[in-house]
């Protein structure tokens, strides 16, 4: 009988959970959630920085590059000796501009007259007078046409596109430059 009681005692103990095996207390759960919240709040600024950099160096940089390439294609469509087409309009008009006349600037901060145009936030061309920017511009494109040193049949064309302002208060303002060569008689 003593052996049967011992087995019964052991089987009851096996069926009844021990006090320390029941799980977490409410206090332990609150502490764990508090620690998780503190760590999450510490990582939040990294998400803001990542989003800002993605917008500036991803989206805006891709758009400035695209707009510089668009202007380059428009300029390369002109004939080598064209010095009158106005490429500040799209499609280019036959008079009133500089065409591929040597001149201009590749510095967006110092555009040359007739070698600059402005786009709105959607990439639509805006009317501008000389180098005076319209109020609602978002992208600026400037271009430089040079004769390659020692050649009279080769021009180097550089187009720089720059966005008006970056997203957020830090970081570089996105700017892209593309360069190409144009030969005579093409």
Keywords summarizing the entry:
single chain; 186 residues; alpha+beta; 6-stranded antiparallel β-sheet; 2 helices; 6 strands; elongated
Walk me through the structure.
The chain has one domain. Helix content is 35%, strand content 19%. It is built from two helices and six strands, in the order ααββββββ. It has helices spanning 2-15, 26-76; strands at residues 103-104, 116-119, 125-126, 139-147, 154-163, 175-183. Strands 1, 2, 3, 4, 5 and 6 form a six-stranded antiparallel beta sheet that branches. Strand 4 and strand 5 (154-163) form a beta hairpin. The model has no long low-confidence stretch (mean pLDDT 85).
Order of H and E elements = HHEEEEEE
The proportion of residues in beta strands is 15-25%
The first-to-last residue Cα distance is 113 Å
Share in helix: 25-40%
Compute the CA-based radius of gyration.
Answer: 34 Å
Q: Strand pairing plus helix content: what structural class?
A: alpha+beta
Biggest sheet descriptor = 6 strands, antiparallel
Query: What is the overall number of helices?
Result: 2
In total, how many domains does the architecture comprise? Answer: 1
- Write down the overall geometry: elongated
Task: Round the mean pLDDT to the nearest integer and report it.
Answer: 85
List how many beta strands DSSP finds.
6
Residue stretches low in confidence (pLDDT < 50, at least 5 long) are none
Write the layout of secondary structure elements.
Elements: H1 2-15, H2 26-76, E1 103-104, E2 116-119, E3 125-126, E4 139-147, E5 154-163, E6 175-183
Antiparallel strand pairs: 1-4, 2-3, 2-4, 4-5, 5-6
